[in-house]
Design a protein that fits this description.
The complex is a heterodimer of chains A (707) and B (79). Chain A is an alpha/beta fold. Chain A has 30 helices and ten strands. Chain A is 61% helix and 7% strand. The chains are: A alpha/beta (707), B alpha+beta (79).
């Protein structure tokens, strides 16, 4: 017996993920649907000791007439009968408290002739009204198994598995609906007959769906598309009016049935949600509560994450030391410790922050709060060419632009999504914090303004605000430039509030963190190894000369071992390829007030911005990279060789800060942008426009302050 | 009882859904519960303009101003 493939389908907010998690537990993973960046969650479920089934969690969809790229995937899969993801059986999940609306697509699937089970989810919410619910009325309407259950409490999940087992054992007939719900018009039937010649599928409704969507379905060949388009125009079949007519007709048929089945009593109670929303979406309290939540999010990210981050950093330092001790000296050990382990540490250190961020975002999403945030900010976001849904991405960028860019998939409008992706990296991410921390000390003195506000803290906040402003201004510019054929809309359900299900939240967090580690990880790792090579190797003779000079100098000045090693490291990096590159770009960055040493740091920052501190530590030969104060002292002591003024005066430091606020120094983000936009064009534009902003910004700041 | 645009209702006022005048929106609106004779209430407007909080029978939906302007309702007597 072949393993059966089950497609889990339903409207957004139908509790589909709860059911998916009930069925599969931890045996799930995320893949991509071929050719598109829509997450495909796949899991396994056991039907008995020997029989397993594969479960695919299809994106939440309202009907077979899709609006977003997520919804299109469903049509793509269900219309590609020979495709890899085509399900043997659909488990359709409908929220029993919203049954009328959720039944629309159920009747469409039934008409497609795909075997299905209809699950009436969330029965736990209507326990007290269960007597007035008549499942048999629905069973007369659709001759398929219909099962009330709860993905939250697990009620009747075992019954569902029995049905699945029955299907897996070869029983098929009882999972098919006897007669179509929607009776196609005569002309629609004629059209379907003609399209059948091309698809080879005898189901008339299947061919109608093909007629609606053929032009974007990727499994059809160009010739097939052309032939179908010809048939469609010959029959004067109009896409939108036919969609609307069909939908109206379906509601006309199913509404009285559902009302009879549910005994005409309202099953959902929106009183509590209405009361909460009186505050949460209030014109004054709404935004206030939102900013309080955001304040809490950032507090959490930056204070709770501090300890685990330190542990991870120290762990990797210890691991590096251990490897040095165990393995013999040589290039391989260097590669392992300075390239691989340091690179891995650079990724892992962000895990606590990203975990906390997604823990809160996933919980807010689960409760239904996020759609209220979208409602509150859609108006203001639109002025910047963004969407209410961009708010979530921009907040995530405060931790890291990578998960932020991935979260833009929920934005249906291509232009709004693209703009959100393009500007997200301008929001100061947590990798910029160590850089800000080192440099702010040179720009503003410690102390308090008006006795209460820490001036350096204010400067910190100023840099964040600068990033946000830059993101919004850039968004406006992109709004003018990018052309769009798509139609932007809000039209969004505001689901009832419900307490978050811990298991769902935990699984979302696990999935997001894994994606981050894999996506960002592989790039950071490659770049770290590359940078390790560039800063450890150089033209052989000059490297040799450099270390000999350093040795000689150390001997002459009678330096202790540590200082000597640091000096050698510093001279070597100067002679290395990285050093050569730093000197090579010096003429370009000189007008910004930067010398070749800063040049090296700028180059190495492309792995991850916080590498700046480590590089500075090496160049200024400070043994312990963790000690920001020591690095700052060394940098403060650095003099310009010509003017003998401090190298890191206010002008240079400020200029460098501005550069780090604006510049696109993150290869992983560029890689994710490429993946999400499916073209090299957008990451290149992102790199260039942010680079120009950084260069011009720093140039102006330096020239004004130094002049 | 006159026909009004949903966007012209004042916060707290209700109307009965008649039709959507932009065919492109119609399919999506249907799936959100904007079906014949549904009771629509404009609950409130978002703080920065644009978005409207609409109650459709017993559940809630957010629409932009221009989306609500394409929906005709017969005004209910809001005593």
């Amino acid at each position: 017996m072949d393993k059966i493939k089950i497609g889990l389908l339903g409207n957004p907010n139908s509790g589909k993920s709860s059911l998916f998690n009930q069925l599969t537990g931890l045996r799930q993973h995320v893949a991509n649907f071929p050719g598109v960046t829509v997450d495909k969650k796949v899991g396994k479920t056991s039907l008995n000791e020997n029989v397993q089934a594969e479960v695919i969690d299809l994106p939440g969809t309202y009907s077979l007439f899709p609006n977003t790229s997520d919804e299109k995937i469903v049509i793509q899969i269900l219309s590609d009968i020979h495709g890899n993801d085509y399900p043997d059986l659909i488990v359709y999940v409908a929220d029993i408290t919203n049954l009328e609306r959720h039944m629309l697509m159920a009747t469409q699937i039934a008409d497609l002739g795909i075997p299905m089970i209809l699950c009436l989810n969330m029965v736990d919410l209507v326990e007290d009204k269960v007597d007035s619910i008549h499942i048999d009325v629905l069973k007369e309407f659709l001759t398929i198994p219909i099962l009330p259950l709860s993905g939250k409490t697990g009620k009747n999940i075992s019954e569902l598995k029995k049905y699945l087992f029955q299907f897996a054992s070869g029983e098929r007939r009882r999972f098919l609906n006897d007669r179509p719900v929607y009776e196609m018009r005569i002309d629609e039937n004629q059209l379907a007959m003609q399209i059948k010649e091309i698809t080879g599928n005898a189901n008339p409704y299947f061919n109608k769906i093909i007629a609606h969507h053929s032009y974007w379905l990727s499994h059809l060949s160009a010739i097939q598309k052309e032939n179908i388009a010809n048939i469609v125009s010959k029959n004067s079949f109009e896409d939108i009016p036919r969609q609307v007519e069909e939908t109206l007709k379906r509601f006309e048929i199913l509404t009285p049935v559902v009302r009879r089945a549910l005994g005409n009593i309202p099953l959902s109670d929106s009183t509590i949600t209405s009361r909460i929303d009186n505050v949460n979406t209030h014109r004054v309290y709404g935004p206030l509560i939102f900013f309080l939540i955001m304040f809490f999010v950032f507090q959490a990210i930056f204070s709770w994450a501090e300890y685990p981050m330190t542990w991870i950093e120290e762990g990797f330092i210890a691991l590096g030391a251990l490897v040095r001790e165990v393995l013999p000296l040589g290039w391989f050990t260097d590669l392992l410790t300075e390239g691989v382990i340091a690179g891995l540490g650079g990724i892992m250190v962000f895990i606590p922050q990203i975990t906390i961020l997604f823990l809160i975002i996933a919980a807010l999403e689960e409760t239904g709060y996020m759609s209220r945030a979208v409602f509150l900010f859609d108006g203001i976001m639109q002025r910047f060419g963004l969407n209410g849904r961009s708010v979530v991405a921009l907040i995530s960028s405060g931790a890291c632009a990578i998960p932020a860019i991935m979260s833009t998939r929920t934005i249906a409008d291509r232009k709004e999504r693209l703009i959100t992706i393009m500007v997200s990296p301008l929001i100061s991410c947590s990798a910029r914090i160590p850089v800000y921390a080192v440099l702010i000390g040179f720009v503003v003195p410690p102390g308090y303004a008006w006795g209460i506000f820490n001036i350096q803290g204010l400067a910190f906040m100023g840099l964040y605000l600068l990033g946000i402003m830059a993101a919004l201004v850039s968004a406006i510019v992109f709004k003018w430039i990018i052309k769009s054929r798509d139609h932007s809309y809000l039209m969004m359900e505001l689901p009832l509030y419900k307490p978050p299900v811990l298991k769902n939240v935990a699984l979302v967090v696990k999935e997001k963190v894994t994606t981050f580690v894999v996506e960002a990880g592989k790039i950071i790792l490659i770049i770290s190894v590359l940078l390790w090579f560039l800063s450890s190797y150089g033209p052989t003779h000059s490297m040799l000369e450099a270390s000999q000079n350093a040795m000689a100098k150390a001997e002459m000045e009678n330096l202790d071992e540590d200082t000597r090693d640091n000096l050698i490291a510093a001279t070597k990096i100067e002679a290395s390829y990285a050093g050569i590159m730093g000197k090579w770009i010096e003429p370009v960055i000189k007008p910004l007030g930067f010398d070749w040493k800063i040049g090296i740091a700028l180059i190495t920052s492309f792995a991850a911005r916080e590498v700046f501190v480590g590089t500075m530590a090496t160049i200024y030969s400070v043994g312990n990279t963790d000690d920001e104060a020591t690095i700052r002292e060394k940098m403060a002591a650095e003099k310009d060789p010509v003017t003998l003024k401090p190298r890191y005066d206010v002008a240079t430091s400020f200029s460098l800060l501005i550069f780090y606020v604006f510049a696109m120094q993150c290869m992983s983000t560029l890689a994710v942008t490429r993946r999400e936009t499916k073209s090299w064009k957008w990451p290149v534009i992102q790199f260039v426009y942010m680079g120009i902003m950084a260069y011009v910004g720093s140039l102006v700041v330096y020239q004004v302050l130094a002049g | 009882m006159g026909i009004k645009r949903l966007s012209d209702l004042k916060p707290g006022q209700s109307g009965i859904f008649e039709r959507c005048t932009v065919p492109k929106h119609e399919g999506k609106l249907l799936t959100l519960g904007f079906v014949s004779k549904a009771q629509l209430t404009l609950v409130r407007k978002a703080p920065f303009g644009e978005a409207l909080y609409i109650k459709v029978n017993d559940h809630m939906v957010a629409l932009r101003y221009n989306e609500a302007a394409a929906i005709d309702v017969t005004e209910k007597y809001n005593g």
